[in-house]
Design a protein that fits this description.
The structure is a homodimer. Chain A is an alpha/beta fold. The first copy, chain A, is about 35% helix and about 25% strand. In chain A, the strands form 2 sheets. In chain A, strands 5-4-1-8-9-10-11-12-13 form a 9-stranded mixed sheet, with helices on both faces. In chain A, strands 3-2-6-7 form a 4-stranded mixed sheet. Chains A and B meet through helix 7, strand 13 and helix 9 of A and helix 7, strand 13 and helix 9 of B.
């Protein structure tokens, strides 16, 4: 585990209600989900902001998972808090409230020791901040970006600027349609490749995921989850598994990217099986590998 | 091509409007889509009813595709006619009208020469009629059944009776949820296996398909279709490819069923690329095989 991946994103408390239960003060945020998932594969460097209410136990827990928290700023005020409710159809959710708190004035500060991180994941924050981070990192080897409908609708120009600078975009089906204007995902992918994007990972939740390099596609089904308890963070856990594997591997090529997609699916499925990051903690590498093998068997003739 | 598959289902004229155009008097119906798709693999015996307005050219066309029409009754009156409109989101469609015509009093008549057909597909008709057909066929080797929301909601008891008698059920996600009361497809599949069903094929449209034997799952993605012109008949074409391949192969085992699922995906994709049965006609076996190989490459590391 020599290579490192840097993640910038949110650190949050989530209050989540699903048909399977309720969890208050659950640790969450894109940077946290990503970090814990990626930490099973490589060293992780987290850049984010939390409030003074952020518990020491969580800091200790994340450090134990080989997550470097030098870039976690503890700012005056409270940690970002999100409240959401999921329905029997897990694809429907309502945001009950969003208290940005210290996240409202977040300006990513990259510690000197992080400036030469080879793999970078720009989690779902304002595109202008994603660009700022990218300006600071010295010659990254591979940069991936996540986004969301909010930025597509409110800061499209900034978003398009940063998209042009990265190697890979993580996106889901509705975001892809909104970003490209194409309902057909293959037309949407083509349009993004024409902008110069090398790789696109299309996340389709329980329908799996695909990666496109503009010439070839690779598809992985989702791991069959009998009880998706809490979908929060699934996309970031997916990205964490994907980028963590890529980082550990070091070299980036099509075969490695395809395997990374399967590891992404594995970590996404582990995430949704339990509340918060519970499903991602204390997982043996052997269990991850078993799930990878099961996913491969699902598509083997 | 020695083995035969028998299909009972509808024969229809469809008036279809999609974002890509309009087609009036298009030949359709579950038995027709199934037959043409299956005819690329095996001999097909069609049981259905059409009206006196059914064109001789279509009869000649189907016969040319090694579809045995001895079981096609030409009844006094008009052929079943369906009108539908599809939207940019191809999963949404409105039925504009349904004129049952001769199909309203359809009573499947099985020609003597069809009574010993080894493979049987009970297309989407009233469950009581599906049972009648099953009563008549002498010791079929493998029977598959299709259904729809209408029968799940209006004739559930009859439907459950015939489901218990067949080897395989074709079903889509919303039908599975309605039939089992489970939103989670894996819970739904388990419930159906508990009823004694050996095999279930879950069709998920552009998200692919899976087959379950109660212990193992196999998943095939959908073939990437850049312009799904007309989704009408995709499910029946899928079933046609699946059952046609199974019939040609003769023996039924898990490996063959998995390959059949991929051939089903191939024929479904060929169907939706053009209006009516146009995409299924005049396809070379080589082109079908190329698409099968492409589908396998999509999931190959």
């Amino acid at each position: 585990m020599s290579n490192s991946v840097l993640v910038v994103g949110s650190v949050a408390f989530d209050d989540v209600e699903t048909p399977f239960g309720k969890r208050v003060d659950a640790i969450g945020g894109s940077a946290v989900y990503f970090s814990v998932a990626a930490s099973h594969f490589s060293n992780v460097r987290l850049v984010g902001v939390a409030g003074q209410d952020f518990p020491e136990e969580i800091v200790a827990l994340l450090k134990k998972h080989s997550i470097n928290l030098e870039g976690l700023e503890i700012a005056e005020g409270k940690t970002f808090r999100w409240g959401g409710k999921y329905y029997t159809d897990v694809n429907k959710r309502d945001t009950l409230y969003t208290d940005l708190n210290v996240f409202a004035s977040f300006e990513p500060k990259i510690p000197k020791t992080f400036l030469q991180t080879p793999f970078v994941f720009l989690g779902n924050i304002q595109p202008a901040l994603q660009s700022d981070v990218l300006n600071k990192i010295q010659k990254p080897k591979f940069v991936a970006l996540d986004t969301m409908n909010l930025w597509i609708n409110t800061t499209r120009d900034e978003l398009m600027k940063v998209i042009r600078r990265v190697d890979l975009l993580f996106i889901n089906d509705t975001e892809l349609a909104e970003l490209t204007g194409h309902n057909n995902p293959y037309s949407g992918l083509r349009k993004l490749h024409e902008l110069g994007l090398n790789y696109i990972v299309l996340k389709k939740g329980e329908h799996g995921a695909m990666i496109s390099n503009g010439k070839s596609l690779f598809i992985s089904p989702a791991f069959p989850v009998l009880q998706p308890t809490d979908p929060t963070g699934a996309g970031d856990s997916f990205a964490g598994g994907f980028m963590g594997f890529l980082t550990a591997n070091g070299g980036v090529n099509w075969r490695v990217l395809k395997k990374a997609l399967v590891y992404g699916s594995v970590m996404g499925s582990l995430c949704v099986e339990q509340f918060s990051i519970d499903g991602l903690l204390n997982i043996q590498r052997k269990a991850i590998q078993a799930r990878f093998d099961d996913l491969r068997k699902l598509v083997t003739l």
